[in-house]
Write a structure and sequence with these properties.
This protein is α/β, with parallel strands linked by helices. The protein has helices at residues 12-28, 31-48, 68-84, 130-133, 154-176, 187-191, 216-230, 233-239, 257-268, 283-291, 304-307, 322-343, 350-358, 382-385, 401-412, 420-429, 434-441, 450-512, and strands at 51-57, 59-60, 65-66, 88-91, 100-103, 107-113, 116-126, 141-150, 180-184, 198-202, 244-250, 271-274, 297-301, 368-374, 392-395. It folds into three domains: 50-176, no CATH class; 180-395, P-loop containing nucleotide triphosphate hydrolases (Rossmann fold), CATH 3.40.50.300; 407-494. It is elongated, with a radius of gyration of 35 Å.
Length: 513
């Protein structure tokens, strides 16, 4: 391969001479004259040179809007500049997690793509007409990046390399950004232009898959699914599907559904849009909200069963459960009246929600995960949770031993203890949420060590077990009572029926006589 320094046709001594002449030229030629000279030299070089140059300005149009292409290229060159360039500039970019290092003015860096060498150089020029370019910060400087390459590679560079640079640069920018947690504003707020559709804060939730307590096999499965999804852009395109995936998280309170969402966001480095459905007025407003979300994001609708009346059809009644169901129906009615309270404001319907999730427009922006959470999966309409809409159903369950080990490691930094055997058995026999287990494991003072916390957990589990036993006994008793009442009622009804039949027969006989 040709040496990188030599391909531009400069030797060290030529460079030194050039720099000398450049300094003299700058000192003795007035600025307006230099502008003309440089213009003509530039044209002349274009005629004789074998190299093609493409210029990317920092600001586009009237010089007011920062060029996205410039930003992407700067991101792309950042790692190469850090490794090779002698003079770098640290840029504090808005919404960026860290400083972005880029080429300083009048610095250059080389890049290789498919065996072809190209050169990127960063330049700054003062503008003759200041009023045209002043960007409100009093600066009359124009920065630009120039890509230079041999003309024989023109086609490949323009068609392939540039697309590669812009794509990679955008990716780096997204990875480097500060992630946000968005929440939807009420329509009064955004119609009156007091705010946008979404308000945001920086997303700094510490949950990760490592700290999430659940069955390790299940956890691995979810991680693999997420990785596969995030890398499947071309696959989704090939099969003609919008690049999005739906997750349904269900399970009792405190089993880690919200924590799992945070862990997914941190794992994939996505933003989170927490959509409060009850404040969305109608279906078209819902679409507007969803259209205003960016790619690489998770749209979350928590407690979907409580947000709106999206419950499915009730199952056929089973006679045995009749009385149970009466109570259940009362609860249901209570819940419904609450929901209807919201519904007076919100007219979002099930079909509106379904259209929003997978209607035509849902393909408008890429790489999105939609997550619903619920405590009562059976109560959701099957249409809402069918595969294709909610592709993966994840049950978050009560804490078992594997999950406990993760919590013990997180909270007490231990991996084994004499009480583990006892705890394992108790956890199999008792339904305790990871939130409750975690609360027991958390030291409440400096004096509390792992031993004390584990003993507290054992005690708490034993109490829970006892409570559950008593509850089961009461349930059994109540069931027996119900059964007896039902049998009595049945017997009475049969007695009545018999009496009626007998009465009818006696009546008929009397009539005959
Ligand atoms: N699986 C888990 N792994 C680690 N921590 C957990 C887990 N489940 C619960 N926790 C702890 O309990 C707290 C409550 O959990 P979380 O809010 O995720 O529960 P949830 O399932 O969303 O409950 P709800 O149904 O009431 O919304 C969390 O802050 C976390 O500290
Ligand atoms: Mg929750």
């Amino acid at each position: 391969m040709v040496g990188t320094g030599s391909i531009w046709g400069f030797t060290g001594s030529t460079m030194t001479s050039l720099m000398f002449f450049w300094a003299i030229y700058k000192q003795y030629f007035p600025y307006h004259l230099r502008v003309y000279i440089e213009e003509y030299v530039y044209k002349l070089m274009g005629w004789v040179s074998n190299y093609v140059h493409i210029k990317f300005d920092e600001y586009t149009g009237e010089g007011l809007k920062r060029s996205e292409a410039y930003n992407s290229i700067r991101n792309y060159l950042s790692s190469k500049s850090t490794a090779c360039a002698k003079r770098l500039k640290a840029n504090e970019t808005k919404n960026s997690k860290s400083l972005v290092l880029s080429l300083d003015d009048d610095e250059a860096v080389e890049d290789e793509f498919e065996g072809v060498m190209v050169k990127w150089s960063s330049s700054v020029s003062k503008n003759a007409n200041q009023s045209n370019t002043s960007r409100g910060n009093g600066s009359d400087e124009r920065r630009y990046l120039t890509l230079s390459f041999h003309r024989e590679h023109r086609r490949m560079i323009i068609e392939t390399y540039l697309a590669h640079v812009l794509r990679e640069g955008k990716e780096i920018g997204l990875r480097n950004r500060e992630r946000k947690l968005y929440t939807n504003n009420s329509s009064q707020e955004w119609y009156s232009r007091r705010s946008g559709k979404w308000s945001n804060v920086l997303f700094h939730h510490p949950a990760t898959f490592e700290t999430l307590a659940m069955d390790p096999v299940k956890k691995e499965g979810i991680k693999k699914d997420l990785i596969k999804f995030s890398k499947a852009k071309d696959y989704y395109k090939k099969v003609g599907k919008a690049w999005k995936r739906g997750y349904l998280l269900f399970g009792p309170p405190g089993t880690g559904k919200s924590t799992m969402i945070a862990a997914i966001a941190n794992f994939l480095e996505y933003d989170v849009y927490d959509l409060e459905l009850t404040t969305v007025q109608n279906n078209s407003e819902l679409k507007k909200f969803l259209l205003d979300t960016t790619s690489k994001s998770i749209i979350v609708i928590e407690d979907i069963d409580c947000s709106l009346d999206l419950t499915g059809q009730r199952k056929k009644k089973n006679e045995e459960d009749e009385e149970n169901e009466d109570e259940e129906e009362k609860k249901e009615a209570e819940k419904k009246s609450k929901v209807e309270g919201y519904e007076r404001k919100s007219k979002v319907t099930l079909s509106g929600l379904l259209n929003s999730i997978d209607g035509l427009w849902s393909a408008c922006s890429d790489e999105k995960i939609i997550i619903f959470t619920t405590n009562f999966v059976d109560k959701l309409d099957p249409a809402l949770i069918r595969r294709g809409r909610m592709d993966k159903h994840i049950e978050m369950s009560y804490c078992r031993f594997e999950a406990f080990k993760v919590l013990a490691k997180n909270y007490l930094e231990i991996e084994a203890h004499d009480l583990y055997g006892e705890i394992e058995i108790l956890l199999e026999e008792t339904d305790m949420s990871p939130a409750d287990v975690a609360e027991n494991l958390m030291p409440k003072s400096d004096e509390e060590d792992a031993n004390i916390c584990l003993k507290r957990l054992v005690k708490s589990l034993e109490e829970e077990k006892e409570k559950a036993r008593k509850l089961a006994e009461e349930e059994k008793k109540k069931k027996a009572e119900r059964e007896a009442r039902r049998n009595k009622k049945k017997a009475e009804q049969e007695e009545k029926k018999k009496k009626k039949e007998n009465g009818d027969v006696a009546g008929e006989n009397g009539n005959k006589i």
